[in-house]
């Protein structure tokens, strides 16, 4: 009988591995198929998120998002400003406006073509550099010459170091590019490393090949595309998941804000649908980087720490999932 039970258990484990299953018993006794080996934590015992990857939002207040400790040992605000499509004075002014409202985390990328503006705004703000958390990304066409791309990014930003650098997408030579980023960490040029648009399959293949575990993956997540299994997988492996397009992305935002469920919940709390969506993300342990150059919208987006969604309200939003991806990656 015992042999049968052991055989049955072994078969289940094999099936789970082949399907990239996400079940876990929540313990840390040993590595399983859901806890991928590879990479290292600088402060593996320094944990500010719960075992399920959820954030302690009680420490935040409007205009001052709470911070979490990444696996690298550095802290990061759970809410920041995305800068995609912002250029020139519009970008600089948007960041300066956001800084006045309490934002300290800003997301850019080499592909965005605005690293110089982001760096200029940080330098002009009058706020000490160490108070900011700046993230940028390398695009796949830079993976083949990553060291040069890293130096070019640092030069454009001109803020001394980068808090977080991501690989923008999986691509040819992504492991080699990441290793170049690891060398930049050793040189003190980058503090934390991560990836973007890596899902369960990509992350499972990637982790054993690198020395420093990514602190984050940045993926498309919104009420119509919730990636529940991906979210749970990343949380189990100690990787923060951050949602870009929290409002559905260009061409979809208006319709999402008109969703009756979101409108009803927003009205019950005296909030906007945008605030409800951001709060829903945060209560699921998903960091967010909504983008806006409008100071009123910026203030609205950072004012989500004076209310809490009930379990019933969370479930109602969870039920909106359509597996409806709004971008190609």
Automatic annotation (TrEMBL):
Gene3D superfamilies in UniProt: NADP-dependent oxidoreductase domain
Family: Belongs to the aldo/keto reductase family.
Name of the protein in its database record: 2,5-didehydrogluconate reductase
GO molecular function: 2,5-didehydrogluconate reductase activity; methylglyoxal reductase (NADPH) (acetol producing) activity
Keyword annotations: NADP, Oxidoreductase, Signal
Organism: Phocaeicola salanitronis (strain DSM 18170 / JCM 13657 / CCUG 60908 / BL78) (Bacteroides salanitronis)
Signal peptide: 1-21
All copies of domain NADP-dependent oxidoreductase, residue ranges: 79-321
Reaction catalysis annotation: hydroxyacetone + NADP(+) = methylglyoxal + NADPH + H(+)
EC number per UniProt: 1.1.1.274
